[in-house]
Amino acid sequence: MATTQNQIKSMQKDLDQIKDLLADNLAKTASNGASKTATKAEETARKAGEGVKTFVTDRKEQLGSAKNACESTIKERPFVSTAAAFVGGALLMTLLNRRS
């Protein structure tokens, strides 16, 4: 019976050691997993930021091209541009006056 008691105590110590090892391993894994998740989130945010920068740069270039085209058209045909602006303003006023 004494040997059984000793075996039980030995097994209890072994189980406590296993429990401590598992707890340490879990803590390391959780912190490592959180670190990996944070790193992945940072990487995703960085990629999204680069995508936004590219989008904005492209749109600025397109806006510049449209502005230059508009200015050159106005310089080439000032009377047509003035007439088009007048007609557009008249249509806008007509639509706004109908709502009132």
Note down, in words, how this protein is organized:
The structure is a single chain. With 100 residues, the protein is an all-alpha fold. The protein has one domain. The protein is 97% helix and 0% strand. The chain is built from two helices and no strands. The protein has helices spanning 2-76, 78-99. Helix 1 crosses helix 2. The longest helix is centred in the middle third of the chain and has 75 residues, at 2-76. It is rod-shaped and about 115 Å long. The termini are far apart. The mean pLDDT is 82.
Keywords for this entry:
about 100 residues; mainly alpha; 2 helices
Unreliable parts? none
SSE pattern? HH
Strand content: under 5%
The assigned structural class equals mainly alpha
Number of domains: 1
Percent of residues in helices comes to: over 70%
Shape annotation: rod-shaped
User: Care to count the β-strands?
Assistant: 0
Number of helices: 2
* Largest beta-sheet characterization: none
Distance between the termini: 102 Å
Q: What do the pLDDT scores average to?
A: 82
Gyration radius (Cα, Å) is 37 Å
Secondary structure layout:
Blueprint: H1 2-76, H2 78-99
Helix pairs in contact: 1-2
Concise synopsis of the structure shown:
With about 100 residues, this protein is an all-alpha fold. Helices cover about 95% and strands about 0% of the residues.
